[in-house]
Fold this sequence. Notes:
By secondary structure, the protein is of the alpha+beta class. The protein is 23% helix and 32% strand. The protein is built from 5 helices and 10 strands, in the order E-H-E-E-E-H-E-E-H-E-E-H-H-E-E. It has helices at residues 17-32, 97-101, 147-162, 192-198, 207-217; strands at 4-11, 38-46, 56-57, 69-75, 105-119, 134-141, 168-178, 183-189, 221-222, 228-234. The chain has an 8-stranded antiparallel barrel with strand order 1-4-2-10-6-8-7-5. Strand 7 (168-178) and strand 8 (183-189) form a beta hairpin. Helix 3 packs across helix 5. It is globular, with a radius of gyration of 18 Å.
Amino acid sequence: MDRGIRISFYDLADDKRDAYLAWLHERYLPALVKRPGIEWAAHYLAGKGAPPERLAHTDDGKVPGGGDYILLVGATDANAFAPPHPQEKFEPVTADEGKMLALRRSERVSIMAEQARAAGPATRGLDVQGTARAIQLGTFNALPEDEDALLAWYARWRMPCMEKLPGLERVRKLVGVSGWAKHGVLYEFSSMAERHAHFPTHERPYPELEAWTDKVVTRLIHAPRSPQLGTRIWPV
């Protein structure tokens, strides 16, 4: 079971990057995944391309805009990420955890629960924990009057369609527990080349359903930079 995911989008200063990544990959994450309730962790270097122009993004200046790196931590459920109560204190994963986490810039955190998942043709098996080498991750909000339409679109079109997409290992529809975004979707690909080869044009044979997609997704309000592509840098 890995139905809870904590997502951190953030940037790093150039002169702090090497020290931070060495700490994260060699000390912090190997120790974190040994903690009760934590099932896996995966760190991604995000792509630099701009998201599609047809998508709307929040103009709320209070929403941090980081995203050069994406850190995913999977847990048995979202409760594993609950903060301590006032009389409780959590031991840090490493003694210098506070100092090193402070190096993250413009960090935006979402704690999400898995609403649904589907396996693609390249699946490694639904019992395999962790995430794939390449991902596309979107986080967004919908207008209240559009929530049912969004639910129907994912259930009746997007998720079944992804089961046939070459190169796709798995797709997870997420719902927000904590953080700005109420919705998320995590696509997992066997490689970024497979994603580029098949995902952008997968709806062209179905013009009516492509029109449905346009109607739904253009009404969403995305987080800064969403959706983002990422290539896994830990574990290698």
